[in-house]
Amino acid sequence: MLKPPSDESTARLYAWIDDHTDEMVASLQGVLRIPSLEAAAEAGAPFGAEVKRALAFTLAHAAELGFRTKDVDGFAGHAEFGEGDEMVAAVGHLDVVPEGDGWKHAPYGATIEDGYIYARGSSDDKGPTWAALYGACALLNSGLPLRRRVRVIFGCNEESGFQCVHHYWEVAREERPVFAFTPDAGFPLVYAEKGIANIVLHYASQPAECDLCVTSLSGGRRPNMVPDSADAVLAGSAEAVASAAAALDALGAEGVTSTVEHAELKVHAVGKSAHGSRPMDGVNAVIRLADALLHLALPADEKWLRFLVDASGPDGTGLGIAGSDEVAGELTSNLGIFEFTRQNGALATWNIRYPVTWSIQRVSSAAMAAGATAGWNLHQVHDQPPLYVPLDKEPVSTLLRVYREATGDEESQPRTMGGGTYARATPNAVAYGAGFPGGSDGPAHEPDERIAISTVVDAAKVFAVALYELAR
Questions:
Q1: Sign of the C-alpha dihedral, residues 111, 131, 392, 411?
Q2: Cβ proximity of 338 and 347 under 8 Å
Q3: Strand partners, 81
Q4: Among candidates 125, 44, 55, which has minimal Cα distance to 90?
Q5: Which of 4, 201, 355, 433 is the most buried (most CB within 10 A)?
Q6: In what helix (H) or strand (E) does residue 347 lie, and over which residues does it extend?
Q7: Integer Cα distance of 255 and 412 in angstroms
Q8: Close Cβ partners of 197 (under 8 Å, ≥ 6 residues apart)
Q9: Helix H or strand E encompassing 26
Q10: What separation in angstroms does the CA of 220 have from each of 45, 101, 262, 344, 471?
Q11: Up-side HSE of residue 11: CA atoms within 13 Å toward CB?
Q12: How far is CA 194 from CA 190, 317, 363, in A?
């Protein structure tokens, strides 16, 4: 709940948002109903047709609101107004992670219930991005004097690689803002983000004569999600398959079921999805499945299964990378994607959030050394370096002041996080909103993701004032 506005300019911005709340919610529902998951590239749609559709919908709506708009090769787009040699920006994203299982509400239904909008992307990040768009629109319609242009940037590939903003800044050479924020975290603001590394290890399976062995095991949709399901197929003699099925039945491992089909044992595990930055909040179905299989007599597979289980603790101990720093706290590790076949061996992708004072070399070399002892080799490393903006630098000072004046909240402190936002790829930027302390929005990357309509409205008001202060 925001305080009543204390000055005329703030009152003007708040009033416009209040007058356009129904329109804002209805248009947000429209973009939430587009399943903007990354898919195969098409002409003009580098991240697939549905992501392109979400971008086109957003730019068309922004144009109707009075913005100048631009589609930057389908990678990203922006809506802008104002004049001046300099520009300030809010940078959000329109892509989403896969919906996963376990929803009570339709993942793309944008259902409103008890004051919340339920949909994949509602809190991460279409809802907050819409709040930024309407905050900027309030400023556009306010008549308040500005000396910088205001831009809202819409990325299309935040959840799976940041290729969108790389293309926007580095390839298309779009103008860089003087100050910016991304509405993709929480208030008051996030001034440090851990480094994010996807480390892929490979295990070369050796052909083996075995009475019973794993022919395939797979699970996970994205590195930054805890896998909520996994499947394995085991083949061997009829007696061995029947014996293994009985052993798994007797084990009674939670979330693990098995069936015998055509002399094969098919094993399925169910877990609980969570954001890759907080693997301790989920249940990893791949690890649940591998642990169950370790209770069977599988000499051809025991070595790689054992490493998989031992190396997948959420603190990174099993990979030899556990640790912390005083700025952002402890490292986290999530086994996000796993694929094994008897022919090709295993590929395991760990999504690691490492302390801001560490280097990727420190993390990758330790993981490589831990894997080597069990026959695994480093296959690939993808890194997003950490972000750290001291609290006495802009735009932190202005954004924090705007939040405190709007809410009266002097107790909540700027924080750090393991999640990664566009702030690390945007000059002079931090993550700012849209979640308020104590709110019940989210949970991102989990079933029944939701955002409160009151959050969207209040965040739009804070964003409007923040953009005003940065632009004037």
A1: negative
A2: yes
A3: 150
A4: 125
A5: 433
A6: strand 345-354
A7: 39
A8: 351, 352, 354, 360, 363, 364, 381, 382, 383, 384
A9: helix 21-32
A10: 25, 12, 26, 18, 43
A11: 5
A12: 11, 18, 12
Tokens of 439: 């709110």
21, amino acid identity: T
Specify the DSSP element, H or E, that contains 453. Answer: helix 453-471
Task: Return all residues near 348 (Cβ < 8 A) that are at least 6 apart.
Answer: 200, 201, 202, 203, 308, 335, 337, 338, 376
Residue partners of 78: CB distance under 8 A and separation at least 6: 69, 70, 72, 89, 151, 152, 153, 154, 174
**What whole-number distance in Å separates Cα of residue 180 and Cα of residue 282?**
32
Measured distance CA(465)–CA(471) in Å, rounded: 10
> In whole angstroms, what is the distance from residue 171 CA to residue 314 CA?
36
Per-residue pLDDT tens for 82-127? 999 999 999 999 999 999 889 999 999 999 999 999 999 999 999 9
Residue range 12-40, pLDDT digits in tens? 999 999 999 999 999 999 999 999 999 99
**C-beta of residue 185 within 8 angstroms of C-beta of residue 92:** no
CA–CA distances in Å: residue 138 to residues 11, 273, 461: 11, 37, 8
Q: In this structure, how many other beta carbons lie within 10 angstroms of the beta carbon of residue 302?
A: 13
